[in-house]
Amino acid sequence: MKKFWSILLASMMILSMTACGGSETPASSSSSEAAPASSSEAASSEAASASSEAASSEASAETADVPTMPDVSNVDMAALDAQIDELAAKVTLANEGKLVMGTSADFAPYEFHILDNGVDKIVGFDVALGQAIADELGVEFEVKDISFDSILMELNAGTIDLGIAGFSPTPERMAAVDMSCLYYTGGQSLMIRKADADKYTGLSDFGAGKSVGAQTGSIQEGLAKEQTPEAALVSLQTVPSIIMELKSNKIDAAYIETVVAEGYVKTQDDLMILCEVPFDAEGSSVAVKKGNTEMLDFVNAVITKVVANGDMAKFVEEANELSTQAAG
Ligand code: ARG
Questions:
Q1: Is 31 a pocket residue for ligand 1 (Cβ < 6 Å)?
Q2: 12: buried, middle or exposed (CB in 10 Å: 19+, 13-18, 0-12)?
Q3: 161: Cβ below 6 Å to ligand 1?
Q4: For the CA atoms of 72, 77, 79, 83, what is the dihedral angle to 10 degrees?
Q5: Cβ(246)–Cβ(261) below 8 Å
Q6: Which atom of ligand 1 is nearest to the CA of 103?
């Protein structure tokens, strides 16, 4: 009897873990905040756990769609592997035998180009995650480097299988495509030239007459409009071109993802981060074609696995190393 309950409990936990707010299955945690989801409710008694599951799905009805990091405090790896295999069998691909990830490879350490023995290669922790997803499917893997603002269109057009490009899961995007659990969390920053350090103290210094840069189609464009509405917004296709404009005095500041900004600060003496920029959809999700629940559930299960077994942390570490080497 005891065994029956523990199996039931374990399978419920796996189900809820692979959901994490992205699919119809209610998330086990009612937290939509950054606070890590507590697993203690599931670990308490069977009865309490069953009823707290019901209660939390009600409590989280409004926020259930906000992706969070998967709760990996209590993962049964063998059961998760079995579930990944089951889910993999249901996945259909745009091109048989090949998983195609769409990205905009201008965003170290997420995705960027390096020269590997003279050969151009796209690397980064998003690419490593895409490769892990392809490996779990047992198919070939291809990275398609396209402009950031066309990735979600290509996804819904069915020309790529996944969009992995440091996508922040905003309500607008979640209406257009399906977004996975978070696989990474990070914030937003405003960058300036070091030479201007004395001129500014914060966002309020960027009023009329100032110009700020952001990538076309990114949430940074929205941040610029919200946080510095008087400043002129300069939208550019790629992050390196925004950095160039900043370095050459064409714009006064740039909205950049914090970890990306930190990478530039490490290698470019003339740049600095002025301040953090508040944003409520922190972190990155994988984008899946709207309504493709088979793919979404599978991707969520793989994300749960790589977060739980430490692979994701390794991908991030490796990407950070590669990006400093590439720039240095
Ligand atoms: N996190 C931001 C967004 O979702 C920026 C992502 C930019 N990604 C890229 N590969 N350039 O809009």
A1: no
A2: middle
A3: no
A4: 80
A5: no
A6: 10
Q: Are 304 and 67 in contact (CB under 8 A)?
A: no
Rounded distance, CA 288 to CA 61, Å? 22
H helical segments located in 192-276? 219-227, 239-247, 258-267
Mean pLDDT across the stretch 212-228? Answer: 98
The residue nearest atom 7 of ligand 1, judged by CA position, is: 166
The alpha-helical segments, DSSP class H, found in 20-104 are: 40-43, 46-59, 77-88
Tokens 């005891």: give the residue. 2
**Mean pLDDT, rounded, for 300-312:** 98
The count of other CB atoms within 10 Å of the CB of residue 309 is: 14
Q: Is the dihedral of CA 55, 58, 59, 63 positive or negative?
A: positive
- Dihedral of CA atoms 60, 56, 12, 161 in degrees, nearest 10, equals 10
What does the pLDDT read at residue 65?
Answer: 74
Residue 180 CA, chain-centre distance (Å), reads: 8
Is the distance from the beta carbon of residue 277 to the nearest atom of ligand 1 less than 6 Å?
no
- Residue with more model confidence, 59 or 278: 278
pLDDT at residue 63 is higher than 70 = no
The CB of 297 under 6 Å from ligand 1? The reply is no
Contact yes or no for 132/139 (Cβ under 8 A): no
- 22 pLDDT band (50/70/90 cuts)? very low
Buried b (16+ CB within 10 A) or exposed e, 143-169: bbebebebbbbbbbeeebbbbbbbbbb
Ligand 1 center to 143 CA (angstroms)? 16
Determine if ligand 1 sits within 6 Å of the CB of residue 184.
no
Candidate of 215, 225, 238 to mutate for ligand 1, largest count of ligand atoms within 8 Å of Cβ: 215
Q: Is the CB of 239 under 6 A from ligand 1?
A: yes
User: Is 189 near ligand 1, meaning CB less than 6 Å away?
Assistant: no
Residue 202 DSSP code:
S
Residue 229 has pLDDT above 70, yes or no: yes
Reported pTM: 0.84
